[in-house]
Amino acid sequence: MIEKGFREFFLLLMCTLLGLQGVNGQNYKDELFRITPPYLQTVQLLRTDLELSIPIIKLGSSDQLILRFDDLRGGVKNYSYTFELCTYDWKPSGLMVMEYIDGFERNYIDNYAFSFGTTQRYTHYHVNFPNSDIDFKVSGNYLLRVWEEGNDTAAVIMIPFYIWEDIAGVQESVTRSNLSQFRDAYQRVNFTWDVTDANTTNPYDEIKVVAMQNYRYDNARYDLKPRIISGNKLIYDQTDLLFEAGKEYRRFDTRSLRVQTDRIINIDRNQDGYMVYINVDENRSYKRYFFENDINGRYLIAAELTNDVNLQADYAMVRFSLESPYWMNNGNYYVLGTFNNYTTSTANQMTYDFDLQMYTCDIYLKQGFYNYLYGFVENGTDLIDFEQAEGNYFEAVNDYSLFCYLRDNMRFSDRLIGYKTFSSFQR
Predict the structure, then answer these.
(1) Sign of CA pseudo-dihedral 109, 110, 111, 114
(2) Of 39, 182, 315, 368, which residue is 20 to 30 A from 208 by alpha carbon distance?
(3) What is the DSSP letter of 180?
(4) Domain residue spans in the chain?
């Protein structure tokens, strides 16, 4: 009885302390993804039934997400995971954990297995949720954190995901801008939310809408307001609701490390492992648009002649090369995609080779099929510019995601009451 009482007191204390995070004004929006140690690789948070989907599941359903990652140190380490509910724009909600979690506040990742038949040894960890230890009481934006035993001050992994309710419906379209200066390089997103079942008396203030392109958080549009409210219909058809159209993503395929596959020009193997060279890429900013099938920036772990890609897919150092007749002294190029969550760091920053007149970058990646782009970031800013190396054309096919939130004044949280992902190709 004493142990049980102490445990309940401890959990209450932990939940209270975590709930206080919301009062410090912190905003996670600029750093939603965090993978701190370099020995943790191929961190994925996926739907168990839709590997290429955004990590989102319906509240109270049988849907599950699965977290996967590799520890390149091998052996067995103790990892645990926690959740935090956030506002629609990724600030701490301020709620205590027990108000949005049904189960234990912290749980351990017990599922692991060792790689075999690979040059790079690693231990693969995974956990599905919701599970018998944890479920969710409230819809909204969540952060998943992973902690390594012995370090409770900073999570080694942080990833966003969503829990939603199917309450609000949406009709959407993607069109050209009617402003001449944006007509050829941008896509305009128009949509109408039906909030009949949301029971809101003040939709202009209580409804928050977010729009996202290709699962990129760096250019997501927050707190969009309707131009017209007609009964329970919220109409968003503003002329400035624009996204740069970009082009189709570049790609490479390392499912085989024995033969050269799509866009692979050479594969070397030595005592350190594999070195894969992709075709040298041209600057596409002034090239005409042409359609190519892609997966809009995402990637799939895959390897030929394997039964379990999670344990048998190998790692390789991949060389990216971008032609450039001159060095850009006002910023840096980066290799970007969902494989690194469009984050910029020294790991994906390119260096200029004056002799070859090109930018290069080596990135250690697990076998699979990858999409990527080259983004430029000027010194002193954090804005990613894809126009420099890729260009923008309205005809490009992009995925868009819309999120509709209702401010719950009883729970003091932003419920995610509507969600839809659609393609610009359906215009």
Answers:
(1) positive
(2) 182
(3) G
(4) 2-164, 169-245+396-426, 250-378
Q: Which amino acid is at 252?
A: F
3-state helix/strand/coil string of 229-256: EECCEEEECCCCCEEECCCCCEEEECCC
Q: Do the domains 250-378 and 169-245+396-426 match in fold?
A: yes
Q: Are 335 and 320 in contact (CB under 8 A)?
A: yes
What's at 301, amino acid-wise?
I
Strands 101-103, 207-213: pairing kind: unpaired
pLDDT along the chain (427 residues), means of 10: 41 42 60 92 97 96 98 98 97 96 96 98 99 97 96 93 98 95 96 96 96 96 96 95 97 95 93 96 92 95 96 99 97 98 96 98 98 98 96 96 95 96 83
| Residue 240 in tokens | 């400035």
Q: How far apart are CA 131 and CA 129, in angstroms?
A: 5
Task: Enumerate the β-bridge partners of residue 364.
Answer: 317
- How far is residue 298's CA from residue 339's CA, in Å, rounded to a whole number? 7
How many angstroms separate the CA atoms of 81 and 144, rounded? 7
Q: Class for domain 250-378, per CATH?
A: mainly beta
Q: What is the pLDDT of residue 299?
A: 98
pLDDT of residue 31: 84
Sequence-ordered strand ranges (E) for 87-184: 101-103, 107-108, 111-114, 123-129, 134-136, 140-148, 157-164, 169-175
Judged by phi (left if over 0) then psi (alpha if -120 to 50, else beta), residue 312 lies in alpha
Q: What is the DSSP letter of 37?
A: S
Nearest of 214, 178, 194, 217 to residue 90 by alpha carbon: 217
- Tokens 């301020």 sit at which residue? 94
Amino acid at 338: T
Instruction: Report pLDDT for 17.
Output: 43
Peptide bond into 37 cis (omega under 30): no
Provide the terminal-to-terminal Cα distance of the chain, rounded to the nearest Å: 64
Question: Beta-carbon neighbour count of residue 145 at 10 Å?
Answer: 17
Query: What DSSP state is assigned to residue 282?
Result: P
The domain defined by 2-164 folds into Immunoglobulin-like (2.60.40)
Pick the CATH number of 169-245+396-426 from 2.40.50.140, 2.60.40.10, 3.30.950.30, 3.90.1200.10: 2.60.40.10
pTM of the shown model? 0.92
Q: Which of 167, 60, 63 is nearest to 406 (CA)?
A: 167
